[in-house]
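Technical note accompanying the year-one report. For the benefit of new consortium partners, we illustrate the data format agreed upon in the data management plan: each record pairs a sequence with a structure-token string. No post-processing was applied to the example shown here.
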Amino acid sequence: MSEGKKYYSTPADVITYSGVKADDLWLNDDSELEELIESWLEQIADKIHKHQDMNYFEELEEIPPAVHDIAKRMCTNKIKAATLNRDSNITRIDEFTVQQTKDFVFTEEIRKELKDLPQKKRRLKTL
């Protein structure tokens, strides 16, 4: 992880897992691809923190490996969504049905897995 940057997983792990190449996302080279993935991993870390109502970097001594895996998979989902949207944001279902490509970065499966990880208990607000 780069000094001062806070994200889970790594651009290298995402690239290996997803098989993405720079030209898949219309980028010029691998350094641009790594920068893009790093920025996406930072956004994903923020989403995880908000969903869990905690920042694992600040509140845990050791980050559960599952958090890194979830971030890697979410970033791979973002890569898939980006390539689909760039090709066409319309998906043909059958001869007569089309629909807009859906954002599937934060899937229901990922939400379920996050429930098993440390999180702050949310208090109900009283009036």
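Partners are asked to follow this layout when depositing records. Helices lie at 11-18, 30-52, 56-59, 65-87, 108-115.
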